[in-house]
Amino acid sequence: MISTGSNAALAGRPEGLEQLRSLLDTALGALGDAALKRGGPVAAGGPEAAVAAVGEVLGGGRFLAEEPSAERVTELFEAYARWSVDLTHPSAVARMQCAPTAASAAAELLAASLNQSLHAWESGPFALELERRLIAEMASWVGFGPEAGGTLTPGGSISNLMGLLFSRDRALKDSGEVSATGLAGRAVRPRVLCSAAAHFSVARAAGFLGLGRSAVVKVPVDDRGRMLADEARRIVEGFAPDEVPVAIVATAGTTDHGSFDPLPELADLAAEFGIWLHVDAAYGIGALFSPTLAPLLDGLGRADSVAFDLHKFGWVPASSSVVVVRDRKHMECLDEQAVYLNPSDDEALGFTALLGTSLQTTRRSDALKMAATLLTVGREGMGAWVDACHAQARYAAGRIAAAEGLELVADPLLSTVIFRCAPTDGTPVDDESAWNAAVRRRLMTDGRALLARTKIAGPDGTPRVHLKLVFLNPMTTEDDIDALLADVSAAARGLAREAAAER
Ligand SMILES: Cc1ncc(COP(=O)(O)O)c(C=O)c1O
User: Fold this and answer.
1) 3-class DSSP state for residue 12?
2) 378-502 matches 116-363 in CATH topology
3) Amino acid 7: pLDDT
């Protein structure tokens, strides 16, 4: 056997399995210890401490080690776990980043150890069929029929990019296949409509696809970030003859308010003018699992493509994103016949793969972990977990509204709560935006709480820094929320007092 000078082993071999078992013990031990040592959602110390922690593990050495050692891996695992954000901690409410189920985490280990890929039949026959079945089922969730297609992608941003890719190719087909001839020399000005509250990935995608960010027309929104359908209609009706509407991108679950664009009205508009309707349900897909919240997604089935993430509201590790398309014929720009991967005589005999559904060639199997969560939590369970997060947001909003020194922006629609620390008589503050931003940084640095921030217009229309809570942990209790809000208030008062003392 070739010796590497260490006990490195390949995961699938008997000696590798043995090592995997022992490393898994280490990893699980590190997971358990980390929570105890951290004592909060993240280790205290802020950016400097995190930089120092990585430096300490490397000890001045290099990753490509001169003297390889499995012990170093153990140290690395321990430090990684200790310095990771604990997404199961009730005060980790910053990002749309859920804690995965144990089943999906185990699925990741299996998937990584077997390292299947989806670009050739001989790279992963079972994984291929698993993704096909999962895509077909997910397409049916949103209301698409048997002609539907889709693919798993590395994230909502890429799923949005793919939805816009299909819409671009359909809208501009009359003057030649875009993927064959490119966009140069076309006497048209492509237009993509999305709301002013749409995710930034929409404009980026328009840029990447050669439409240009300038092709994006931001439709005004109401005070909760919902697209005004009348405004969208006015814009479409006002297009000059050379302006080609490529897509209307509706957001189902905006990043801040978790609000839903009016899908039925936008579907009517899209149908009337023959425009592609893409729905970014990256976050809002959670509503689909809850019988109470599902009506927020009425009209979803009339879209041409829908993007959604199970690494947000779905308890699956990233990357777990999906784009589904009502009619898979619109995915033909991805067709590829590579002699070394999918020769037609092989394909004719059933040795097919998913090269022609993806932007990627080698592609990991994300379906396994998604299936693991769905199978273990089940439909009712997913609904109950989404409802629990929604209830937490409502509870938090109620407590914020009642608290002195905290100011709620609006009742939550899904599972986000936007608020700000407001000065009270006892805590005069010079710059309220800077103060709110500092409260968030103080909580992060102390390792007490991880909150998000955003900007919302104040009474005079000037955007002000606000804080945001994103509830995705169904296990969080009302007491946990009370403790979190007490920490926020204490940090706010402490900073105000410190600033006053310096004046
Ligand atoms: C509405 C919306 N769409 C798309 C995205 C991008 O998703 P991802 O981070 O998976 O690329 C986000 C991220 O928060 C989002 O809120």
Assistant:
1) coil
2) no
3) 79
Distance CA 110, CA 24 (A): 12
Contact 372, 104 (CB under 8 A): yes
96 lines ligand 1 (CB under 6 A): yes
> What DSSP assignment string belongs to 91-151?
TEESSS-PPPPHHHHHHHHHHHHHT--SSSGGG-HHHHHHHHHHHHHHHHHHT--TT-EEE
Q: What is the pLDDT of residue 2?
A: 58
Residue pLDDT, tens place only, 330-352: 999 999 999 999 999 999 999 99
Q: Tell me if 476 CB under 6 Å of ligand 1.
A: no
For the chain, the domains span 1-86, 116-363, 378-502
251 lines ligand 1 (CB under 6 A): yes
**CATH second-level architecture of 378-502?**
Alpha-Beta Complex (3.90)
For residue range 352-378, list pLDDT tens digits in order. Answer: 999 999 999 999 999 999 999 999 999
Ligand 1 pocket member 155 (CB < 6 A) = yes
pLDDT at 483: 98
The CATH number of 116-363, from 3.30.420.40, 3.40.640.10, 3.90.1010.10, 3.30.450.40, is 3.40.640.10
Q: What is the pLDDT of residue 160?
A: 98
Q: Is the pLDDT of residue 317 over 90?
A: yes
Nearest ligand 1 atom to the CA of 159 is: 11
